[in-house]
Amino acid sequence: MFKKGTVCANISIGGSMRTVLITGASKGIGKQAALDFLKAGYNVIVNFNKTYIDKSEYLMFKEQVEFIKADVSDYNQVKDMFLNGEKRFGSIDVVVNNAAVSYVGLLSQMDEKDWDRIIDVNLKGIFNVCKCAVPSMVNRKSGHIINISSMWGITGASCEVAYSASKAGVIGLTKALAKELAPSNVYVNCVAPGIIQTDMNDVFTQKELIDMIPLGRIGKKQDISSILLFLSDENTSFITGQVFSVNGGTVI
Questions:
Q1: What sign has the CA pseudo-torsion 240, 128, 166, 202?
Q2: Which residues are catalytic?
Q3: In terms of C-beta density within 10 A (0-12 exposed, 13-18 middle, 19 or more buried), how is residue 103 classed?
Q4: CATH at residue 190
Q5: Does residue 105 belong to any structural domain of this protein?
Q6: How far apart are CA 51 and CA 44, in angstroms?
Q7: Phi-psi region of 88 (alpha: psi -120 to 50; beta: other; left: phi over 0)
């Protein structure tokens, strides 16, 4: 498993630094992953879809980081993001599909536009990113794709039907794409977080969340970034098509 301060494992043959693109990296799990990948010696493309992103925490990594604004649900924006990222760092070795939106409410009260937005970002967004990432990876016979699902994609959540459906789709996409790309030595895996301390869970009280978790604590963003680093390592060479459910025992 990933150890803090480990850099050597993330340097490619020939001495060049490996590059990771992380979608939805302006906050939460994505931001934590971006910072931890930088500390581990990667070049990092930080994708965001906000008008502003706080870059103050990245000052010491300015030679390793590129910020690119793009809506992952828009294929043309994703294509331009890859072109700009490759122009800065060359090949993109790892992709972490993290961008997602949520909706909490009854299905009967949900508008079609809300359903479409969740599917467009959470599922179609991964299609768009993978479509841009795969040709180069297949051509190089090397690459790692890690898709972020959710424990609700495994078991479903009341009042989160669209979100659960989109995240279940991410799992199916991961397994199918892993089989498709395995002959090209491209690894595709999925991480399904449980209850993690992020803005998405701020609508619930701490007690409500902790009462659901057998380990008795809410997950930390580092719990997810650590497994992302592990799955991105070039030495992790016999794991593909798997779903890693990091949930403190909530779903077993």
A1: positive
A2: 163
A3: middle
A4: 3.40.50.720
A5: yes
A6: 20
A7: alpha
The domain of 126 spans 8-246
Residue 93 in domain: yes
**3 is a domain residue:** no
* 82 alpha carbon, distance to own chain's centre: 16
- In the chain, the number of structural domains is 1
10 Å Cβ neighbour count for 78?
A: 24
- Prediction pTM value: 0.93
Instruction: Compute how many other C-beta atoms are within 10 angstroms of the C-beta atom of residue 202.
Output: 8
Contact by Cβ (8 Å): 97, 147: yes
**Per residue in 213-231, pLDDT tens?**
999 999 999 999 999 999 9
Tell me: the pLDDT tens digits for 100-125?
999 999 999 999 999 999 999 999 99
Instruction: Decide if 80 is inside a domain.
Output: yes
Query: Secondary structure of the chain in the HEC alphabet?
Result: CCCCCCCHHHECCCCCECEEEECCCCCHHHHHHHHHHHHCCCEEEEEECCCCCCCHHHHHHCCCEEEEECCCCCHHHHHHHHHHHHHHHCCCCEEEECCCCCCCCCHHHCCHHHHHHHHHHHHHHHHHHHHHHHHHHHHHCCEEEEEECCHHHHHCCCCCHHHHHHHHHHHHHHHHHHHHHHHHCEEEEEEEECCECCHHHCCCCHHHHHCCCCCCCCECHHHHHHHHHHHHCCCCCCCCCCEEEECCCCCC
